[in-house]
Write the structure tokens for this entry.
Amino acid sequence: MKVDLFDFDLPQELIALRPVAPRDSARMLVVRDDAPFTDATVRDLPGLLAPGDVLVFNDTRVIPAQLEGRRGEAKIGATLHKRIDMRRWQAFVRNAKRLSEGDTIDFGAGVSAVAEARHADGSFTLAFAGEEPVEVLLERAGRMPLPPYIAGKRPTDERDRADYQTMFAQHDGAVAAPTAALHFTPGLMAALADRDVGAETLTLHVGAGTFLPVKAEDTDDHAMHAEWGTVSAETAARLNAARAAGGRLIAVGTTSLRLLESAAGEDGQVRAFAGDTAIFITPGYAFRAVDGLMTNFHLPRSTLMMLVSALMGRERMMDAYAHAIARGYRFYSYGDSSLLLP
């Protein structure tokens, strides 16, 4: 499909630079196949779901994966993208033309890394020096990796360390937040439990590739970056049992959806999974495991805009985005939410 089919104009003032407080007071647009759009709030979620439904969250934890350093006199920026092993990460590098294989980058605070290898996409393998865990080094020298559309408008600050982390965050490794879950609070989770709506977690370490624009003119020519995820056998069994009993699996965020679909067989059964996924979901995809999606509003021409169009239909989603823009919904990572129920 042509990528420009997923383009739209977004007023810059609708890009949210901070989340609302409290988190569950964000607005939420409800999109169904056969009903008018409903303007709701995240707090309305329990009444929009049925007893027996299950929300599936991503429990990855965002690490301060953005680093600023020097190679000699040259300024080098690095955003870690994907862990290779205990001391090596693949990273997107700013000012990469000033960096060669074998160069050492000094990130300050006693943190340095060798640019070990350059990849075909221009990223580098960075090998961190010393014996301290890389996560400890990042806490000392790194910053939270805010999306470019926020970082380009204001500097990262201490508030972001809390704001850009979900209440479910447990496992270090993401360089971008699973932002749909930023809207959840303990009070909202209690209300969902009272409604007999279940909650399950899986782990997908979101990579910086999620922010990369689609440069190809046709979706067939776009290569997705791989991300590592895991679904336990116990979680898979509970999800299958809930669905067999008539409950719907509602993915909270496109990361949860992508991992569920990667773990599901053609029979719709979710299986234990541990490994990389580079699944690219575009219109025409036959969903196996997911019955709905809660997600924020996405960038034009992005793989995520293609994913929601695959779930609900391209024209339906273009109409939904036009509705959201006309009514002043806040967009992107710190913005408002949508509940998509095909």
